Structure formats: structure tokens, C-alpha cells
Amino acid sequence: MLSAVTVSVVPEARGGPFVFWDDISKACESARRLGFDAIELFAPSPHAIPFDELSRLLAKHSLRLAAVGTGAGMVKHKLSLSDPDPKRRREAIQFASSMIEYGGRFKAPAIIGSMQGRWALPQSREQALETLRESINELGEFAHSIGMPLIFEPVNRYETNLVTSVTVGCEFLDSLKSKNVKLLADLFHLNIEEANIAEALRQAGSMIGHVHFADSNRLAAGFGHTDFPPIVAVLREIGYEGYLSAEVLSLPDADAAAAMTIKTFQQLMGSDYDEDS
Ligand code: LER
Ligand code: MN
What we know:
Elements: E1 2-8, E2 20-21, H1 24-34, E3 38-42, H2 51-60, E4 64-69, H3 72-75, H4 86-104, E5 110-112, H5 125-145, E6 150-152, H6 166-174, E7 181-186, H7 187-193, H8 197-204, E8 208-212, H9 228-237, E9 243-246, H10 254-269
Parallel strand pairs: 1-2, 1-3, 1-9, 3-4, 4-5, 5-6, 6-7, 7-8, 8-9
Helix pairs in contact: 4-5, 8-9
The structure holds L-Erythrulose and manganese (II) ion (MN).
L-Erythrulose binds near residues 71, 153 and 247.
């Protein structure tokens, strides 16, 4: 497994669960110094950090791009992939596509989390899920056309009323025509929604494509009460080789959150972790 840390350049997301903020160059420098393999980027659009600039920074600090978030589509632009208004839904698809394309240039998948939206009357939940299914099928196939998977994230009940758990996420993926969509297990959301986090991951098996590495309280892994060893044991058992990406609050400050994350990551990886990788 590989380590990653989040960087947000979305002012409207201030206070959200991202470790580094605003200054991508400083974030890359800190990530490398602390020993991360990659960063995960949360940006307002593909134009926020031009391709050449990010390429140069990643190369300079020997970092990879783990994934790109699309949450700004919701937080900043109020776009939802289950929007009953066809025009707004098309804008949501266009925004998500532009992020998929941007990430793809770095071989990084895009994540659809809060952009799944929420259902509300007069729509039914089933109608909203059907609309979401159409959007995710289209985006999944677009991602496929550029050789990338699409990552879909169940989000806890306080943030969506559509896909909130790994079980519902697996059912949703099974119902898609596109077979190019993987699940994101955000350990903070799972801590709220699952009876047993490790068991939920075991059930999902090869459907897991990305992990947000957060403690019970959404602080860095190690600052809460989540029991990580059984979770990592199951991730190994299901053959997960992707990222544990710290999408956590920047508390008590960015460097402390990042340092606790990498300490916990290295402890969990034990002898499997090659410090030079
Ligand atoms: C939001 O809570 C979250 O976990 C993000 O990764 C989804 O956009
Ligand atoms: Mn997340």
C-alpha cells in the first residue's frame, strides 16, 4: 500500500477535511519531507493548477498524484450528478469529466463523492438513484476511454441520503452498466455507517479502489479511536495495493496531522513498508 496526503486549493471548502491548503508548492515540499508517496488534490477546476506546473512540482519532489477530488463541483458550483434538472446534471457531468481528464493526464483517477448529491421530494430516492446511475455510467465509460478507473465514494448520512455505506455502494456498482467503477472506502464515513469496518471491506473485496485514511473523529490516523490493524489486515487479505490517503482535518496543524498520519502508516505497514519506495 502507498501513502498519500490531501491538498485543497478550494477556498470555499475551508474547514473541510484536507491536510494542506492553498500553497501546492509548500504542500509538495512537506509531503516529500515527511515521506509520503503521493498527494491527492482537491481543486475548483482543472485550470486551478495548470498541468505543467503540477507535473514539475511532482517531479521535483518525487511524488505521484494519487487521485483528484471532484467535491468542489458540489461545494463551490452546487452541481449534483443526481440533479433532476437535465441542464444542471449535464453541467455536473461536464465538470466531473473535466476533472477525470485532468487526473488522467497524471494517471490519477477522479473521485465522485459529494457530487452524488441528495434526493428530495417531489423526486423519489429510486428516481434520484436512477439519475445518478446514468451519470456514473457515462462518467465510468469516459474514464475507461482514457484508461482510468472511476472512483465512487459512499458518504455518511449527514452528507448524502443516496449511497451512504459500503454495502449500498456495492449494490450500486453491481447495478451499473459500466464495469469501470471502484469504491472508495473513507474510514471516517465507514466509522459512522458500518457495524464492522473490517467486515464491510472484506465483503467489498476487489471493488475497493481507493481508501481515505482517517481516524474515528476525522483527525489524522492515530489521533482517534479507530482500531487500524484489523482494517489493514483485511485490506491485505483482499489484495488492496492502492493508497491510504489522509483526507483529515488539518489539526492541530497541517504538519502535525501529516506527521501523525505517516507515523501510523509506517507502523501499520511494518516490515512490508519499504522506506525508499
Ligand atoms: C466528503 O465528506 C468526502 O469524504 C469527500 O472525499 C467526498 O467528496
Ligand atoms: Mn472522503
